Amino acid sequence: MTRRSALFVVFAAALTLGSCAAKSSQVPEGTADADQFLFTRGQAELKERNWLRAREYFRQIVDNYPQSPYRPDSKLAVGDTYIGESSTESLLLAVNEFREFLTFYPTNTRADYAQYRLAFAYSKQMLAPGRDQTATRDVVKELQVFVDRYPNSPMTAEARTLMREAKDRLSEASYLVGRYYYRARYYAGAIDRFREVLAADPEYTRRDTVYFHLAESLRLADNKVENRAEALTYYERLLKEFEVSEHLEEARKRVAELKTQ
What is the DSSP letter of 28? Predict the structure, then answer.
């Protein structure tokens, strides 16, 4: 099933659930400030992590009170309830809610929150490094938009932490390909892949492992002097940049060997 088809199925299900839910979240007759009543009830349910019940109240505001001052926050809260459910379908719906918010309220004071939560919804869909990394690339893309548009946001630290996690996931996926080549003794392919990792993500958290296996690949590829010299630089970078690494002892041994040669 394509992503578009999946979204259609999810939205159809959401509409069905929404029509049923609306019946149980009606405002009592004679209630003053109905939108405020709904918003307060929605917040209470959200605090208790009653995702569906909370969404019932917030959706009432979004759908029936277009001029309400609570509508933008309710739109965001609907997205939060979908993230709270954390199913494949609900995360797709969360992405849609935050995208719509940014379309309808691009200058709202909480646009930074919408952009961050959009990226966060994608992050909940990230797969292991050995699997498809489409969602991970979406996280990096949306967080870069966040950093560019909202450099002074109070969520910047959280965004940068999540960015590092996503980039590490992408780098790990690429590194695993290089490691496969290395173990298969296809050193030329391993060298190219390890160099790509370092060029694309010089701050990769596990670059000590990349340094080591790149150096090993260069050392083992052939007996060229220039390859041994380049290998030496990566062993030394590992020793210089990392006080703790499983490869330190072996790297020191290689440095001593290469320097005697």
Answer: P
Q: What angle do CA 112, 114, 120 make, to 5 degrees?
A: 105
Whether the CB-CB separation of 170 and 136 falls below 8 Å is answered with yes
Q: Any idea how long the chain is?
A: 261
Residues in contact with 6: Cβ distance below 8 Å, sequence separation at least 6, in sequence order: 89, 92
CA dihedral 254, 261, 218, 216 (to 10 degrees): -20
- CB burial of residue 203 (10 Å; 0-12, 13-18, 19+): exposed
Asked whether the beta carbons of 231 and 216 are under 8 A apart, the reply is yes
In sequence order, what DSSP letters do the residues of 47-110 get, joined into one string?
A: HTT-HHHHHHHHHHHHHH-TT-TTHHHHHHHHHHHHHHH--HHHHHHHHHHHHHHHHH-TTSTT
Token couple for 203: 């701050």
**This model's pTM is above 0.70:** yes
How far apart are alpha carbons 93 and 81 in whole angstroms? 10
Residue 55 contacts residue 19 (beta carbons within 8 Å): no
The identity of residue 16, as a single letter, is: T
Any idea which residue has 């019946």 for tokens? 23
Task: At 71, list the tokens.
Answer: 């509508």
The pLDDT tens digits for 29-74 are 767 689 999 999 999 999 999 999 999 999 999 999 999 999 999 9
- The amino acid present at 107, given as its one-letter code, is T
Q: What is d(CA 95, CA 85) in angstroms, rounded to the nearest whole number? A: 13
Sign of CA dihedral 243, 246, 249, 252: negative
CA–CA separation, 71 vs 184, rounded Å? 58
